[in-house]
Every structure is written in C-alpha cells, then in structure tokens.
Amino acid sequence: MAPSLNSTLEANGNSSNDGKSPDVNWEEMGFSLTPTDYMYVMKCSIGDNFSQGSLIPFGNIELSPCSGILNYGQGLFEGLKAYRKEDGRILLFRPEQNALRMKAGAERLCMPSPSIEQFVDAVKQAVLANERWVPPFGKGSMYVRPLLMGSGASLGLGPAPEYTFLVYVSPVGSYHKGQRSLNLVVEEKQHRASPGGTGGIKTVANYSPVLDALTRAKAQGFSEVLFLDATTGKYIDEGSACNIFSVKGNSISTPPTHGTILPGITRKSIIEIARKLGYQVEERPVALDELLDADEVFCTGTAVVVTSIGSVTHQGRRVEYKTQADTVCQKLRETLTGIQMGGLEDTMGWMVEVN
Predict the structure, then answer these.
(1) Is residue 322 among the annotated active site residues?
(2) Which of 40, 74, 235, 272 has its CA 20 to 30 A from that of 113?
C-alpha cells in the first residue's frame, strides 16, 4: 500500500505550499511547462515488480550516461489531463486507459510496468500534491505526464537492469492557442512509422523523427503535418502527435490502430461518443484522395482535444473544409469537454474523482 498523500507531504516538511494560489495568469497560459511542487517516483529492477513509490520535490533527476533511455531509447511516456469542476472537485479522464497503453508499450520494449492500480494511484498522488496548480474551472487543465524508462546502466544492447516510473504535472492552456482550426500539409518524403515497428505504442523514440517535417511545415506557415502510410504512400497515417478523422455526410472514418496508428484515448472516446450520437463510424484505411474529398476533417489527442482541420495542402493544392460552429467536430468536442469538466452527465463512467 502506498503511503498517504498527507503523510508523504508531512515527511517532506511541506503541505503543498500551504495551498497558496500560484502566481499564474490563467487567461494567457499556453501549452508549455510550468514547474510545480512535487513529482511521483517509483523504481524497480529487471525481473522484479514495481512496489512502492513516493512523492519528491519536482526537479532534475540523475541518470547514468550509460542508461537504457539515453543510449537505446528504452522509454515510454503517457499524457492525460485533470480538470477542475465548477464545484472545485478534480476529475481525471480515463486514467486506466493510459495505464493499459503503457503496459502494452512496456511489453514491446521489454520493460516491467506498474499495475493499473499503481499507475492510477501515482497519477492521483501527483495531482493532489500539486492541487493548487490545477487551473480554475474553464481556465485550462492540468497535464499529467507519466514516464517509464530504462534508468539503469547498460553498455551493451539489452534491457536495462533498473527502471524508473515517474509522474510530473503542469497546468496548461490550449495546445494551438489562438487557432480555431489547423492547416495541414501532406508530408511525402518522410514517414512517421512502418508496419512491424513501434508506431502503435507511445515510445519516446517515435517523436523526434517527426520534428524535421514539422519544422519545415511550420516554416511554410502550416500548423501541422499529415503523414502517409510507409508502404504505398496512398493512405493517411497520423499528424505529428494526433489522430486524424474524415467526415462525409453522416459517416466518420479514421485509420485502424493495428499497425502504425497510436491507439489514442481521445480517439477511442470520440468514436464511442460519435456512435452514441448516431454517426456511422468506420475504422479502416482512409485514402488521401478520400480525405481531400471530405466535408470535414478533424484531429484528436490529449493535447489538441478535438480540433477542426481547416485545410490540407498536397503538392501545392489546398483543400478547405467546414469549420463553422455547426460542424460534426464541434458537436463531438462539446460533448467530450462537457463530460471532462463535469458539465454533462458522465453516462460512460469515464471520469475518476481525485479528491
């Protein structure tokens, strides 16, 4: 059994800074790191199970230059959010789904992983210890970043001898602040993932390879990159960090998650909401030509939530889509955020109360 939050804070000689409100301009806050008070850390050796972790002050960590994460990229991360309701209570959105995804990724990378219960408890402890940093109702959210990494030293290629599970948090605003819709450009030279690779897990090594294409796209005035499948170059894959959906009439289509597509929790939730609202949802390969003929296109992710795509540019041809208030995207976003922030009844049983 993990120690209680209060006992851990008392042991550290602090009580979450006595609950004083932080000096943050919630209205101007974007999506960037704001250092908070505490982080949660738990370790285990290879062949063992994670047992008991603790809260420590937020700060730098020490790693061997020979650690598995630094030398061989043996690491995973997750992303989820905590929301403050109007009555002050704090809710987490489907944390057990992040725990399950981390376990799947850990198996692929030969790492032990915390149990679902340990994962959720660690997230709760990290959020509660930093409760004063959870934005007021309607002013943003607390982004929660769990990390699992090979922290032990290993010069030869192989699983690290020791592993660290760490959870830190930061208050955040909109990922694409000031943009009501995104403008994407199709990337044809580079690919995000290949069949049989690691595109379907949230390994740290998946993200830096997209930076070149993303940097070039932003230099040309685009918001995001749309990657294509690595086999034929005819079907859509993902954005740099989001799942893609196409809307035509009452039909919503998105690429299936078996293979190169990350099984996003927001993606999964939007599919369930859309079906409940009466839309026909298909998880199947979506050709680029089909996407360019869609009525609407939108993306999903923990950071971007549900965001309209205003245009997709391919080989110099720019195709624009509906982004008005009466779009399918807007209906789905309002339903999802209503559940997340407590404005709508959680009939799905998705929200987990922290305090």
Answers:
(1) no
(2) 272
